[in-house]
Specification:
The protein is of the alpha+beta class. The protein is 49% helix and 10% strand. The strands form 3 sheets. The protein has a 5-stranded mixed beta sheet with strand order 1-10-9-8-7, with no helix packed on it. It has a 3-stranded antiparallel beta sheet with strand order 2-5-4. A two-stranded antiparallel sheet has the order 3-6. Helix 2 packs antiparallel against helix 6. The chain is globular, with a radius of gyration of 27 Å. It starts with a strand and ends in a 7-residue tail after the last strand.
C-alpha cells in the first residue's frame, strides 16, 4: 500500500503484517489499558462486598455469595466426573447450554481436590469454595468489557468516551456476577461482539466459530446469530450455520441420549418461576407447567438451625415468549440482508435483538436487561457524546427500575420504556444508508466510477474535481474514499491498477499529511488479474501553523 500526499510524502499507515507491533506483554497491557482497570475493579469490589457484606447488612460472619452460581458449579462437577448426561436431571435449575459448566469443570475438580465446602445442596454461611470460585466467575464475566472496548476502537471512538462506556458497562456487569452469578450471559455477549467484528472484516469462518462459542455458553446468543449471518454472502450461509450449531449440538448429545425427554423439556420449555421473579403481562399467555404448590425452604446448614418457612411456587414456560423474540430477530436479519445497512446500524440492531428478550419475557429477573443495555451504550458511544450521556441515563433508570416490586403492568412498562430509550439513544443518523467503503463507522464519502458520489459532491468536500472523476484518473471498477481528518481531506483509491498520476498531484501544497489508515477490502470469489493496489492522497485543509 502506497501512501502519498499532495506536496510531499505522508507517513505510511501501519500494515497488519510487517508493521504490526510485536505482541509482547507490555503491548497487550497498553492495548487494553481502558478495560483492564474496570475489570479489576469488578473483581476486587465484588469479592470485598461478598466477604464483608454479611457484617454490613446485619449477618456478622456470613458471606454473601450469589445463589445461582452454586447450581452451575454443581453441573461443572458432573462434567468433571463424567456425568454429562445428568446435566438437566437435578434440581439446580440450570437452563443454559453445557458450555459454561464445561469451562468451570477444572475449577470444580480443583475445589473437590482441596476439599472446599460448597453452598449446595444445603445453604452454608461461609462456603470456602467461594474463595476459588468467586474471582474466577467474576473474571469470566468481565470479558465483555474487553469486547466492548475492541468494538469501540474499531469505530474510532475517542479514548475518553471509550472509558466512559467501559466503566458504565462495569457498573452493569457487577451485579450480574456478584449478586446473581450468571457470567455465562456476559460471555455470550462478549463472543457475539467479537463475531460481529469478524463479520465486519468479512472473516466469515472466524465469525461463525465465535458465534458457536457464544451459543454454547448461553442460548441468548441466538438473538444475535441471525443479525451477524445476514451480512454473509448467501452461498456461505449453510456452511457457517453448521459451524455455529456444531459445538452446542455436540455438547447436548450426552444429555439427549441419556434422558431426551427431560432435556428437551428443560431447553425448550425453559421453566421459570413467577413467585421468585417479576411476572409481566405475558405470564398470562405462558403455558402452565406446574400449579402453585408449597415448598419448605431451609435456611441453615442443618434442618432446624434457622426457622423454616413455606413458600408457594408456580412454574410456567418461558420458552414460547422467547420464540417471539427470535421471530422478530429473523425479520431484522431479512432487513439487514436486503438493505445492507452500515456497520453502526448493524450494531444498533443487534442491541435491539438482545433487548427483545425483555419485551416478550413472561417472568423478568433484573439481570435480563444487561445484555441489551451493554450494546445500547456501545451504539450510543459511536453516535456521539450527548447520545452516550442519554443512554447512560436510561440505562441507570432501567437498572434501578428492574429491582422494583410493582404491579405487572407498571413494572413491565417502566422497564421496557427505559430499555428501549437507551436503545433509541444510539440510533445512527442514517441507519439504512449504503455501507461506504473505507469507513467502518459509515462516515466516509464514496467516490469513483462505480456509481457513487459525483464531482460536485467531491468539490464541496474539498476534493479536486480531477480526482473526483474516476473515468480517467482512477480507472473503471475502482473505489475512492474521502476521509476528513484533522490534517485534511484524505482520498484513498482501491484500484486494480495504480492510478494514473495527475499533474495537479505534484502541485505545491502545505506539508504535514497524516494519511488516513486504509485497508484493501476483500471480495468473495477468486481474484484474477493484477493484485489490487491501494493509494492514498491527503489534501491539507489548513496551513501547519493553524493545525
Amino acid at each position: 500500500m502506497a501512501v502519498t500526499s499532495i506536496g510531499g510524502t505522508a507517513p505510511r499507515a501501519p500494515s497488519r503484517t510487517n508493521d504490526a507491533p510485536a505482541r509482547t506483554f507490555g503491548n497487550v497491557l497498553r492495548a487494553h489499558a481502558v478495560p483492564l482497570p474496570a475489570a479489576a475493579a469488578v473483581v476486587v469490589v465484588g469479592m470485598a462486598l461478598s466477604l464483608l457484606g454479611g457484617s454490613l447488612f446485619g449477618h456478622p460472619g456470613a458471606w454473601m455469595s450469589p445463589g445461582d452460581i452454586w447450581g452451575t458449579f454443581r453441573e461443572a462437577h458432573l462434567v468433571g466426573w463424567g456425568g454429562e448426561g445428568d446435566l438437566y436431571q437435578g434440581t439446580t435449575g440450570y437452563l443454559s447450554f453445557p458450555g459454561f459448566p464445561v469451562l468451570l469443570a477444572p475449577v470444580a475438580m480443583l475445589s473437590g481436590a482441596l476439599h472446599l465446602s460448597e453452598s449446595l445442596p444445603l445453604f452454608l454461611t461461609r462456603p470456602t469454595a467461594w474463595l476459588l470460585l468467586g474471582p474466577v466467575e467474576m473474571a469470566f464475566g468481565t470479558a465483555v468489557l474487553f469486547s466492548l472496548d475492541a468494538v469501540a476502537r474499531r469505530f474510532e471512538v475517542p479514548r475518553a468516551r471509550r472509558a466512559a462506556v467501559v466503566w458504565a458497562a462495569a457498573a452493569l456487569v457487577w451485579p450480574v456476577v456478584a449478586v446473581w452469578g450468571h457470567p455465562e450471559d456476559l460471555l455470550a455477549v462478549a463472543f457475539s461482539l467479537y463475531a460481529l467484528l469478524a463479520a465486519f472484516d468479512e472473516r466469515w469462518t472466524r465469525s461463525a466459530v465465535l458465534l458457536s462459542v457464544a451459543l454454547a455458553f448461553q442460548p441468548l446468543a441466538v438473538l444475535v446469530v441471525p443479525i451477524v449471518l445476514a451480512r454473509l454472502p448467501w452461498r456461505r450461509w449453510l456452511r457457517c450455520a453448521g459451524i455455529v450449531v456444531a459445538p452446542s449440538a455436540f455438547l447436548l448429545v450426552a444429555p439427549l441420549a441419556h434422558a431426551w425427554r427431560t432435556t428437551l423439556h428443560t431447553l425448550v420449555d425453559q421453566p421459570t418461576y413467577p413467585t421468585t421473579g417479576h411476572p409481566t403481562p405475558w405470564v398470562a399467555l405462558a403455558p402452565l407447567i406446574r400449579h402453585a404448590h408449597s415448598v419448605h425452604v431451609v435456611r441453615g446448614p442443618l434442618p432446624g438451625a434457622l426457622p423454616l418457612f413455606t413458600k408457594s411456587v408456580e412454574v410456567v414456560a418461558g420458552g414460547p415468549g422467547r420464540l417471539i423474540a427470535i421471530a422478530c430477530v429473523l425479520a431484522l436479519a431479512v432487513v439487514i440482508a436486503r438493505r445492507r445497512p452500515s456497520e453502526h446500524a448493524v450494531l444498533w440492531l443487534a442491541a435491539l435483538g438482545l433487548s427483545l428478550r425483555c419485551v416478550f419475557e413472561s417472568v423478568m429477573f433484573p439481570y435480563y436487561v444487561v445484555p441489551g443495555l451493554l450494546l445500547a451504550l456501545l451504539a450510543a458511544s459511536v453516535a456521539g457524546r450527548w447520545r452516550l450521556m442519554g443512554a447512560v441515563g436510561f440505562a441507570a433508570g432501567c437498572t434501578w427500575i428492574a429491582y422494583w416490586h410493582a404491579p405487572r403492568w407498571d413494572y413491565y412498562l417502566a422497564v421496557v420504556v427505559t430499555l428501549l430509550g437507551a436503545w433509541v439513544a444510539g440510533a445512527p443518523r442514517r441507519a439504512f444508508a449504503q455501507q461506504r467503503a473505507g469507513d467502518p463507522a459509515g462516515g466516509g464519502v464514496a467516490l469513483g466510477s462505480n456509481g457513487s458520489r459525483s464531482a460536485p459532491h467531491c468539490a464541496s468536500a474539498g476534493v479536486p474535481a480531477f480526482f473526483a472523476d474516476g473515468a480517467g484518473d482512477v480507472g473503471p471498477g475502482s473505489v475512492a474514499t474521502v476521509r476528513i481528518t484533522g490534517a485534511g481531506v484524505g482520498v484513498c483509491v482501491d484500484a486494480a491498477e495504480p492510478p494514473v498520476p495527475h499533474p495537479a498531484a505534484s502541485a505545491p501544497a502545505p506539508t504535514a499529511a497524516i494519511a488516513a489508515a486504509t485497508r484493501r477490502r476483500r471480495r468473495p470469489g477468486p481474484v484474477t488479474g493484477p493484485r489490487p493496489v491501494t493509494e492514498c492522497l491527503v489534501i491539507p485543509t489548513s496551513p501547519p501553523s493553524e493545525r
